[in-house]
Amino acid sequence: MTTIINGTPVVQGVAYAPAVWVRRPELPTFTSEIVPEEDRAEEVERFTECARKVADNLYSRASRAQGQAAEVLVMTASMATDRGWVKDVTKRINSGVPAIQAVIAATDKFVAAFEAAGGLMAERTTDLKDVRDRVLAHLQGEPEPGIPDLASPYVLLADDLTPADTAGLDPKVCVAMATELGGPTSHTSIIARQLGIPCIVAVRRLSEIESDVAVLVDSHEGTLTIGVDPAKARRLVEIDAQRAERVRAWKGPAQTSDGHRVQLLANVGDGAAARSAAQAGLAEGVGLMRTELAFLDAPFEPSIHEQARIYSEVFAAFDGHKVVVRTLDAGSDKPVPYATLENEPNPALGVRGLRTTGPNPEVLDHQVDALVLAAQQNPTTEVWVMAPMVATVPEAEWFASLVHERAEAAGVTLKAGIMVEVPAVAVMAEKFLPLIDFVSLGTNDLTQYTMAADRLSPDLAEYSDPWQPAPLTLISKVAAEGTATQTPVGVCGEAASDPVLACVLVGMGVTSLSMAAGAIPGVGAALGQVSLEQCRAAAEAVLTARDAGDARNLAREALGL
Length: 561
Description:
21 helices, alpha/beta, 16 strands, 8-stranded mixed β-sheet
């Protein structure tokens, strides 16, 4: 008898292999022993040495990884030596608490604080618990927990996976993965997408699948099937392998089967990521440069010249091409001490993005000046600048004027646009688009705000699905207005990296799609299999859908994919 279990698909593919469960280790039990005062310094040293080993191991793995996988590993490694956490553990040890208990207690304290903060901070509890478990393993003389080193193909199952574990997966052996928790925009999903491993998240009945049981994973449909006929499963895998081969063979440029061109761009955070994307030769430019990375790592606001140096590295990597820069998206899940408010009761709906210019207007002024300076240093790069979290017409008009005036005064040309992530902008698109040069749809936040669901909540993954008909309806409205006014409409959220959804977006009138560089071949290959007429038919079909699953099925039927 076959059993089908459903989840939310995030990386397309079909695989068939035995299941392997990975579970986090049980925490050591507490003891009542007190560390003698004369031994406490040695106990502190033992802890710090173990924390350094964990950090070194993660940094080493980061040096062998690429793109966002490397960034996530570096971030996790930094948590092992975080001053606040280390100080808290050390204080507890110096009061007589054994290192193991001190690590657990300090982590519990920080996890509670992260969860209270919500957003990205809440998601980082997974990273911190992973660091805790690795340090505890060293303190007990055991190997660090992680994915088993297997030689034969397997389907990885877990309640949740840490980014550090996901980044180290070998796609040749781990042929698919599924988690009970997580969402389409989680770190695990993003890394799985970069590695090209078929992935399904939010699988509520995942525990029904036992280790060593053969499972068919179809992450086009979002299903895991046990009890399927092995011959049938292998045929489905072979058919999907043909699709994968088309992806590997795709070299661009992106266009539909009847020749309709679509710009495929890369999402980057710094010069290194931009150079890597440029060297791959598939991205036609940058559709999203996340500038906040330079601010998050700095205790003080970077100077105009320091910012210009960072931006110039990206501009130089894509000399002669388009680079879309998002101004500082601080606030909510990306707090910056000198640009955001402390202890906001609901930061996702608070002072974030462009709204930080209220209490801190000089930060945006300096950033625009830095972008102008970087544009002067790279005159052949086409620089587009957009503001996040715009919600009103006067905000859009003011931002466009600021960018244009500063650029004109310096003798350079900058295009000014806005992010469409607040539903108010989509609802009133006809009033916004005549005032700006372009728009870029941030589908992660647009979906979050439309569906009233924290996109990082593992319990709300179905609401964060980019196939939800409500946000797709808003996207269609913006794209139609873009077509009417000849305003470029891009998509830079995770929706752009879904090959089937990318075809739908093109059918709606979206002119460019920006994604992790590794996702570009999959999207390009999918577009090459369908006509513009099919894309338009799929776009019309999804607007009649009742839910995300229905939208997927209607789109695939219209596209013949």
